[in-house]
Structures are given as structure tokens and as C-alpha cells.
Design a protein that fits this description.
By secondary structure, the chain is an alpha+beta fold. It has one domain: Zinc/RING finger domain, C3HC4 (zinc finger) (Herpes Virus-1, 2-Layer Sandwich), CATH 3.30.40.10. It is built from 2 helices and 5 strands, in the order ββββαβα. The chain has helices spanning about 55-65, 85-90; strands at about 5-10, 15, 45-50, 55, 85. Strands 4-3-5 form a 3-stranded antiparallel β-sheet. The longest helix has 10 residues, at about 55-65. The chain is globular, with a radius of gyration of 14 Å. Keywords: Metal-binding, Zinc, Zinc-finger. GO terms for molecular function: ubiquitin protein ligase activity; zinc ion binding.
């Protein structure tokens, strides 16, 4: 398969390229605190920045390839300092 080409994902069952997050159909509204500030979707594999923002891992790592700052408050962020979110956020 060509890079960037959409295919049916084994994880979420939707068509999307490997570079983007999974697509889910939610039955209820998702709490605003559990939304990614980059993709504006519910968090997938959430990570925390040192400045305290929680974003999707894939979203943040792709963003950091372009700009090395938090997309929310523009504080410098180093990918190696990003940590997996707490168990509460990941559930």
C-alpha cells in the first residue's frame, strides 16, 4: 500500500491513512476535557506535555515534527519529555 493511502483499519474499522488517528463512532457526547486540541476528536492514546496539556500521541508527535512547541500555549515541548497520560484519562 502507498504511504498516505486510505485503507480499512483493523483497529477502528474505518478507512483512513496510517498517519491519522483512528475514527470512532461514539454513542454519547464525550467530555470536552477528553478532547484533543489538535484533531478536535476524543483522545486516542493520550499523552501529557510538561506544561500540562493532554493530546493524542499521534497528533502531538506529528505536530512536533513541524513546530517544537505546545499547540495550546506555545511553550517549548521536546518529544522525549512527553509522557503517557494517567490511567484515568486512557480509560
Amino acid at each position: 500500500m502507498d504511504a498516505g493511502k486510505s485503507a480499512v483499519c483493523r483497529m477502528c474499522g474505518q478507512s483512513h491513512s496510517p498517519e491519522v488517528n483512528h475514527v470512532y463512532d461514539y454513542q454519547k457526547m464525550v467530555d470536552e476535557d477528553l478532547m484533543c486540541h489538535i484533531c478536535l476528536q476524543p483522545l486516542v492514546d493520550p499523552v501529557d506535555t510538561r506544561c500540562g496539556h493532554t493530546l493524542c500521541s499521534l497528533c502531538l508527535h506529528n505536530y512536533l515534527k513541524i513546530q517544537s512547541m505546545c499547540p495550546v500555549d506555545r511553550i517549548p515541548v521536546i518529544a522525549a519529555q512527553v509522557q503517557q497520560s494517567s490511567v484515568i484519562v486512557r480509560r
